[in-house]
Amino acid sequence: MSTTTEQGAAFRAEVRAWLARAPWPYGLRNYGGTPEASDVPAGRQWQRTLADAGYACLHWPVEHGGRGASVLEQAIFAEEVARAGVPRQLNIVGPDLAGPVIMRFGTEAQHQKYLPGILRGDHLWCQLFSEPEAGSDLASLRTRAGHDGDGWTVDGQKVWTSAAGAADYGLLVARTGKERYQGITAFIVDMSLPGITVRPLRQLDGESKFNEVFFEGVRLPGEAVLGEVGQGWQVATATLGQERLSLGAQAVGMFEALREVAEAARERNLLGDVLADTITSLWMRIWLLRATWLRAISADTELSSPAFSVLKLVSSEVHRDLGDLATAALGADAMVDADDSPLVHRMLVGRAQTILGGTSEIQRNILAERVLGLPREPTR
Ligand SMILES: Cc1cc2nc3c(=O)[nH]c(=O)nc-3n(C[C@H](O)[C@H](O)[C@H](O)COP(=O)(O)OP(=O)(O)OC[C@H]3O[C@@H](n4cnc5c(N)ncnc54)[C@H](O)[C@@H]3O)c2cc1C
């Protein structure tokens, strides 16, 4: 569905008016794509409020409770929540990654069991992909799922699992055979099962959003498999495509961040020619990013397409540079205020953007090989 400029303006006015009067849950802050454990109660309630008002999972088809929103509507919504200073949704993994791959690969029973809980924020999801020896090279993962009667037994370790401590369900990829790609299967894991241990990791910015997750003899029922046995690599690449798309969506909220940076510099009398030039060039990069994002999602592009690597690469590097600019705008206050300034925090988390969802080097490799047709890297 496409939206005319007039319809877009009307939708923007409707969302802005709703955000101004919506009941914000106590303690809700703009925590970005992933809540800390202490953000989860307010985040769940916010997702429920969005669902009641018809603003949850805008991009989902109407049959699954979404709005089947046009590209422009999704961009407008992301911009307006950024402007209001609230999260777009409970977290990225449920609505943007798990939901769409369950719709695509899941059975009817899985649709009915899991999609409503994601839509309404009853269930928080995490993504159990990266391992200590398998990050960029995800296909070398070693967590094993072995046949066990009608079900499976999982042993192994995941790492960098955002929100695992508070998650109800996880989307797991595990090794079920020897073949590098065909030997991988995707599972839906109930995070409360015996044998799962979650250990939080403390980050550079003082928060603890991600975790190590250990599996010791975890019994999964047969119906935990998502897609076919051996189809896990396809599920994983579709999930990563969704993730790149979703990270690109954050771009449209960056105008608000840039405005805050300019304001901080102006307040401190630091908005000289050099800083103004940098702000202008970032402003242009954000516009280009917004246009690239709109084009990528309007073209109905296959999720494994390298188009999303461009989006991920550009959006994360703009994000990082915006964070660095924030400290320049604060001047010496960046040191004094280091603990509680949201702008200093922006600089610290900006660094993570070029790593999560596939590093900038990996995106460049994908673009070099699959778009420019350069020789492939030798595989180990
Ligand atoms: C904030 C944050 C949240 C995250 N959340 C999750 C999550 O919820 N679930 C999850 O599963 N994972 C998550 N991750 C993990 C993330 O997906 C990995 O960190 C990422 O894929 C990189 O893997 P790695 O850390 O093992 O680095 P490595 O793969 O070990 O890479 C180390 C360095 O080598 C470079 N490198 C590696 N291979 C190549 C190559 N072939 N060519 C050129 N350079 C190369 C990389 O670019 C990087 O600079 C998260 C990461 C961050 C930062």
Describe this structure in words.
The protein is an alpha+beta fold and 380 residues long. It has 3 domains: 5-119, Acyl-CoA dehydrogenase/oxidase, N-terminal domain (Butyryl-Coa Dehydrogenase, subunit A, domain 1, Orthogonal Bundle), CATH 1.10.540.10; 125-230, Beta Barrel (Butyryl-CoA Dehydrogenase, subunit A, domain 2), CATH 2.40.110; 235-370, Butyryl-CoA Dehydrogenase, subunit A, domain 3, CATH 1.20.140.10. It has 12 helices and 8 strands. It has helices at 5-21, 40-52, 71-84, 93-105, 108-119, 232-249, 254-267, 273-298, 307-330, 333-336, 342-353, 360-370; strands at 125-128, 144-148, 151-162, 169-175, 184-190, 196-200, 210-220, 225-226. The strands form 2 sheets. Strands 1-4-5-8 form a 4-stranded mixed sheet. Bound molecules: flavin-adenine dinucleotide (FAD).
| Low-confidence sequence ranges | none
Mean pLDDT: 90
Q: Would you state the CATH class of the largest domain?
A: Mainly Alpha
- Please describe the biggest sheet, giving its number of strands, its sense, and whether it closes into a barrel: 4 strands, mixed
The number of E-state strands comes to: 8
Number of domains: 3
Radius of gyration: 21 Å
Question: In sequence order, what are the helices and strands, one letter per element?
Answer: HHHHHEEEEEEEEHHHHHHH
The small-molecule ligands in this entry are:
flavin-adenine dinucleotide
Number of helices: 12
- Looking at the structure, the CATH topology of the largest domain is Butyryl-CoA Dehydrogenase, subunit A, domain 3
CATH architecture of the largest domain: Up-down Bundle
